[in-house]
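hey
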């Protein structure tokens, strides 16, 4: 593979995950929209919530690898070339990022932070 063609990666992901790929992409898009709406509403990033979400993201990346191994027709021992290992790393990264966005958003909507208002004198 001398060129980096995104369609090849899409085809490999489709082969690995099947319909789960499209379900995951849809849920990721919905979580991203909900996160943007939360950020617009709060007008700030809550650092405590972000750090906790990042810690949970490490577990989410591992869970993404477990799910990939379960739903795909191949396992980690079948990974032969650099493209396979790149896709495995991409699955971990996508699981990590999706978990961070999803947990930050859920914590924000379930337990919103109240911002004290300044009194004008």
């Amino acid at each position: 593979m001398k060129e980096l063609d995104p369609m090849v990666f899409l085809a490999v992901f489709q082969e690995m995950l099947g319909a789960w790929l499209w379900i995951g992409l849809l849920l990721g898009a919905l979580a991203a929209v909900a996160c943007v709406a939360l950020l617009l509403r709060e007008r700030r990033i809550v650092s405590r919530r972000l750090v906790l979400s990042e810690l949970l993201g490490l577990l989410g990346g591992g869970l993404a690898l477990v799910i990939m191994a379960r739903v795909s027709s191949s396992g980690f021992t079948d990974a032969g070339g650099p493209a396979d290992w790149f896709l495995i790393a991409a699955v971990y990264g996508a699981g990590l990022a999706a978990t961070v966005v999803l947990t930050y958003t859920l914590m924000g909507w379930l337990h919103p932070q109240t911002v004290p208002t300044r009194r004008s004198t």
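The longest helix spans residues 82-110. The helical segments are 6-17, 19-42, 47-71, 82-110.
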